[in-house]
Structure formats: C-alpha cells, structure tokens
Specification:
InterPro entries: Coronin (IPR015505), DUF1899 (IPR015048), WD40/YVTN_repeat-like_dom_sf (IPR015943), WD40_repeat_CS (IPR019775), WD40_rpt (IPR001680). Keywords: Actin-binding, Cytoplasm, Repeat, WD repeat. This is Coronin. The protein has 613 residues and is mainly beta. It folds into two domains: 153 residues, no CATH class; 353 residues, Methylamine Dehydrogenase, Chain H. The chain has three helices and 40 strands. The chain has a five-stranded antiparallel sheet, with helices on one face. Strands 9-38-37-36 form a four-stranded antiparallel sheet, with no helix packed on it. Strand 25 and strand 26 form a beta hairpin. The structure holds 2-acetamido-2-deoxy-beta-D-glucopyranose (NAG) (2 copies). One 2-acetamido-2-deoxy-beta-D-glucopyranose (NAG) binds next to strand 31.
Length: 613
C-alpha cells in the first residue's frame, strides 16, 4: 500500500524502490507527479518535522526511508539562485508549531485552537523581505542536521514525468502487408547533409550503391517482396549528394550531385523502365551539399554547395535567380521559414544565418559548437529555430529565437550519445518534433512549447529489433488516418525493407473526431503562388483544410485542454538531466516489470486523465 506523507505547507505528497512525489493543488491538474528512485527497497518511510529542514538550502521536505540495513534521508530542495544566502520566504509559509494548542479536555469540550507557528523557520530573518536581503547568514541555528548533500548516502534520484499531452504517443509499424521487402544494394553511406531517403504520398526514392549514381523508386501502392532481378532505376550518372521530392508534384524528384542538379520526372504509375533523361539540368560550379524546395511557391529550389554559396533556382526556366554568400565553411543544413519569406542556414563555422533571399542582408548569430553536423527546422509558427547538434559527445537540441539570433540559445536539452546527427521532422499542427539519426534504432519525440520548459519529452519509438533505421521520411499530414488518431506517418527504411510507421495517440472514444489534436491543416501539397510571383515580392499562404471526415462527429463537449502549468512540481523539486531521467525511469520499470519487453511508460503510471485516453 502506498504510504502518503503530506507536507501541508507546500502541498507535496510522498507516496518499494520508487517513491512517488506529487504536488497536490486545489485546481487543475490537482496532482503533478514525479518519481524518486531509491537504491534499495523500502521497509518504511517517515517524514522529518518541518522545523528540522535546512531552510537556507531551500529544502522543503525530507523523508527518511528505512531499508533492510539503513535509514536513508531523501531531501527535496527547490533549485534557487541565491540558495544558501537568502531566506526564500515564499517557500515557507508559517508552519504549525510544536507546542500543544490545548489540552485533551479542552478539545473534548469543543475547543478548536490552532497550534501557532513557533517560527524557528524564520528565525534568521523573519519577514518576506528577508529573501531580498543578501546579508542573512546562518541557516537554522538550532543544531539540526544539515540536509544530505546530493550523492551522499542517499542515492535518491528524482525523475520528472513529462507533462505534454503527447507524452503517451505510440509509434506503430503497420502490418507486414504494407511493407516493401527484399530491398537490396542501398547506399548507406550518403553524406551527412543528405537524409538518405525521401518519400511523398506516392513514392520513396533511395540512392543505390550501384555504379552510375542509380536511384531506386518504390511505389507505395505496390507493397510486397521485390523480385531478385535488378529493378528499373533512375540513372543519375553521378553519385547522389542529396535528393528531394517537389512538394507540389509527386512525380518530380530533384537530385543534387557533383556540379549539377538534375530534375527527374517519374512516369505515372512508377518506373517501368530505367530513366536516363532528366527533365532539367541546373548547372552549378561545385559539388552540392543539399537542396530544398520552397514550401509555398512552385518551381523554386535552393541549393548549398562546396563553393560555400547558396543559390536560388527558378525551375520554370532553369535559371539561377539569386546567389547568397557569407558562409565561411560547410553548410550543414538549410530550412525555409513556414511563411516562405526567410531561409535559415546552420554552418560549420559555428553560425546560424537567417537570409531574406529576396534581399541580401543576413543577420547572424552563434550556433552550436562542433564540427560534427547539425540540422535546423523552424518551430512555433516561425518564432523559434530548433537546431539539432552536438554538445561535445552528446547529441543536443537547441532553441534560438529567429528574430533575435544574437542573443544565443533560449533553451537546450541533451538527448543521448551517438555519432549521427539527429534529423528533425516538425509537425506544425501539434508542435511535436520527431528526431532520429541514420543507423539509430530509436525515434526521439518532443513537444516544443513556446515558453518554459520549451522541450517536453514524449515516449520515444524504438524500431523492432534488429532493425536499424537507415532513414525515416515523413509523409504529408493528409496521409494520417484520423480514425486511428494518427498525428504523423512516416516511411522507415531499414537495410532491406520500407515499412510505414504511424505515430498515434491512445484515445478511448475513437469513434469521435479528436478535434483537439487536429486543427485545420495547411494544404502544403498545393502551391500558394508561382516562383515568378514570389520573386516579384508576392507572398502566399496555404489554404487550410479540416481533417474531419464527413461522417465523423467532433468529440462530445470539446473540453478545453487542461490549463497547462509549466511549473508543476518541478518548481519545487530539483531536476535531473534527461539522460538520467530516462535511465532511471527505465531501470525502475525493468525492476518493476521483470523482463517485459520495452514496456510503455503509461503502463506503469496511474492517474492518467480519462480524456487523455
Ligand atoms: C554512396 O553515395 C556516396 C555519396 O554520394 C558516395 O560517395 C559513395 O561512393 C556511394 N557508395 C557506393 C557504394 O556507391
Ligand atoms: C554542454 O555540456 C556541458 C557539460 O556536459 C554542460 O555544462 C552545458 O550546459 C551543455 N550545454 C548546453 C548548451 O546544453
């Protein structure tokens, strides 16, 4: 039975080897939970009296855990800037005193007195103003033990559960019937700037490790085992540096290579015979790093190249229409802003630059350190730039303000240790970003929110063993099955297969359209304007369409999403790095669940809101 220990002053509630700590409040969400994993299992727990706490280190609660051989103190401290110097009065309302307020007989006769604060807590300095006074000195002078320092006897870890409503998102590989198998000769050593794989609603394109820069085109509507004989390919002649589909023409594939960009037209129904003639050739001077189509204007392509230039091409006539300079080293990645007005680049010279390609100025600001590669994507309706890069050996995500690059990193989070750059895909409808690197087995998922804490980790997707993801290519939103509450759909490339993976939300009442997950979505598969209009300074916007099928009714009484509290119990409790959280949570779950394979985190949680199912 969980043993509840409540500290009435802060509303913290402590409840085996996992100690759960809840913040209890009188308004939504009522309970905010955090896990505290302890080294040994408990035989009993007891709360230390409030007056014994080390107030100067902002300790708000201390629990003693009895194990087989030890008594282990577990301390809860609020991280505060001036802890140790100031008395933080806001954490310590007057607390109940230790002398009796009345005798038993008095209570029996209906007496109702409060035990008054004997106020040793505020002994050093007694008012709220104290927290502003840097001169307050000692902590409790009454001879109580100082709180255990982190890492001391108590190896108490605190793990915070994500609060994103997408935290229980599930990645599911669709049925074998939808897979393309017996894929062979993939080129798995594509350059770091290239995603190595690209897909649209009809086709997937992958460079092959066969002489002549050949590219395989898989047709999504024709799953099954590929024949053992060589398949028709696109013969690009030269090794592929980067490739991408035209967002407005599912048959048009652009391929960057040595000093050219070739634009290919796949015949309707897929490749029946090998294609040797491209539709268009753009003549570059140097090898290409990467290419990107414009998100709103048709026939507009941008390329970055070894000559450190970024060039804009109008495919209506095959002409270069703009030349952007300023990079001093390799261009790792480029991304168009969602409004199509700006282009951001992240460069090996350690800078992020935001170009207005129709003008020439380019404000720049510091980017991630390191020479190992980076990606960039616009998030939060263009307000922020999400960069995936490296912090020494760790893969890390950084958030920058697009309008104020020079002010540096707004928020950052370390993901894990791995050599390949995380490739982000951002779903602007939900604010969820999916990240995976070439050769990884895991897809990391975060909800990005435009205010603290910015990154909210969701449960990650692990590809079924022993698959390594050679690539993950996300499809347009229109490919999501809303009846199954899918919020993103991707094709996963393994060494020998192409398999659809859906990311969906566990919901109970799936017969209703889950309107809270599906705002009207931009029709990004239709151009909003032409290249020449855009080049003449016109701007466009995608029309927005509803995802609701005609025969589905919106979920009954569409409830306001619970008001998100960005400072739940984490406000009161000390936080760990994401890496530690993951490890500890995993360890705890493995310990608890025995040898169950990769348990879903939600299975070990209680108190999940009904409307989140
Ligand atoms: C795969 O592509 C890369 C980059 O274009 C190229 O350098 C490499 O030679 C290719 N590998 C094979 C086996 O063709
Ligand atoms: C990078 O790592 C160091 C040490 O591991 C850490 O102190 C620092 O905060 C990290 N930087 C960012 C931006 O995450």
């Amino acid at each position: 039975t969980l043993i509840p220990l409540l500290d009435a002053d802060t509303g913290l509630l402590q409840g085996d080897t996992v100690a759960d700590c809840f913040e209890v409040s009188t308004s939504e969400p009522f309970l905010s939970q955090s896990h505290c994993l302890t080294e040994m299992s408990s035989r009993g727990v007891a709360m230390v009296p409030k007056l014994a706490l080390d107030v100067m280190s902002c300790e708000v609660m201390r629990v003693l855990q009895l194990t087989d051989n030890y008594i282990v103190p577990i301390s809860y401290q609020v991280p505060r800037k001036n802890s140790g110097h100031d008395f933080h009065a806001d954490l310590y309302p007057d607390t109940a005193g230790v002398s009796p307020a009345m005798a038993a007989a008095e209570w029996w006769q209906g007496g109702n007195k409060q035990s008054t604060s004997s106020s040793p807590l505020s002994t050093p300095t007694s008012s709220a103003a104290a927290s502003r006074s840097p001169s307050s000195t000692s902590g409790l002078s009454s001879g109580f033990l100082p709180s255990p320092s982190p890492g001391q006897a108590a190896k108490a870890f605190q793990t915070f559960l994500p609060t994103s409503k997408f935290r229980h998102i599930q990645g599911v590989v669709l049925h074998r019937d939808t897979h393309i198998t017996n894929v062979r000769d993939l080129n798995l050593t594509t350059p770091g700037e290239c995603d190595g794989f690209c897909a649209n609603s009809q086709y997937a394109a992958v460079p092959l490790a066969i002489a002549g820069g050949q590219i395989a085109i898989f047709t999504r509507s024709q799953p099954g085992k590929l024949p053992d004989v060589a398949l028709p390919t696109i013969q690009n002649s030269v090794n592929v540096a980067d490739l991408c589909w035209d967002p407005f023409d599912t048959h048009r594939l652009a391929v960057g290579e040595d000093a050219k960009i070739r634009v290919w037209q796949v015949p309707k129904g897929g490749l029946k015979e090998t294609l040797t003639d491209s539709e268009l050739i753009l003549q570059h001077t140097e090898k290409i790093y990467s290419i990107k189509f414009h998100p709103l204007a048709s026939d507009l392509l941008v390329s970055s190249s070894y000559d450190l230039t970024v060039r804009l091409w109008n495919l209506e006539d095959g002409e270069q229409v703009q030349l952007l300079t300023g990079h001093r080293d390799q261009v790792f990645c480029m991304a168009w802003s969602p409004d199509g007005k700006q282009l951001v680049t992240v460069c090996k010279d350690g800078k992020i630059r935001v170009y207005d390609p129709r003008k020439s100025d380019a404000p720049e600001g510091p980017g991630p350190d390191g020479h190992r590669g980076a990606r960039v994507v616009w998030v939060c309706e263009g307000k922020y730039l999400l960069v995936s890069g490296f912090n020494s050996s760790e893969r890390a995500l950084y958030l920058y303000s697009a309008a104020s690059l020079s002010s540096g990193v707004v928020a950052s989070v370390c993901v894990d240790v791995s050599p390949s750059t995380l490739i982000p895909f951002y779903d602007q409808d939900t604010g969820v970003v999916f990240l995976t690197g070439k050769g990884d087995t895991r897809v990391h998922i975060y909800e990005i929110v435009p205010e603290d804490p910015y990154f909210e980790e969701c449960s990650s997707f692990k590809s079924p063993e022993p698959h390594k993801l050679q690539g993950l290519a996300f499809l347009p939103k229109s490919e999501c099955n809303v009846r199954e509450v899918e919020i993103a759909v991707a094709l996963m490339l393994t060494k020998t297969t192409v398999e659809p993976v859906v990311f969906k939300m566990p919901r109970v009442k799936r017969e209703f359209f889950q309107d809270d997950l599906y705002p009207d979505t931009p029709a990004c598969w239709e151009p909003a304007l032409s290249a020449s209009a855009w080049l003449n300074n016109a701007d466009g916007q995608h029309r927005k369409i509803s995802m609701r099928p005609a025969d589905m009714t919106p979920s009954e009484a569409p409830k306001e999403a619970p008001v998100r509290k960005y400072m739940p119990s984490t406000f009161y409790l000390e936080e760990k790095t994401d890496e530690q959280k993951k490890e500890e949570l995993l360890e705890a779950m493995v310990a608890k669940l025995g040898n169950m394979d990769d348990p879903l985190p939600q299975e070990s949680f209680e108190g999940v809101d009904d409307d989140e199912w």
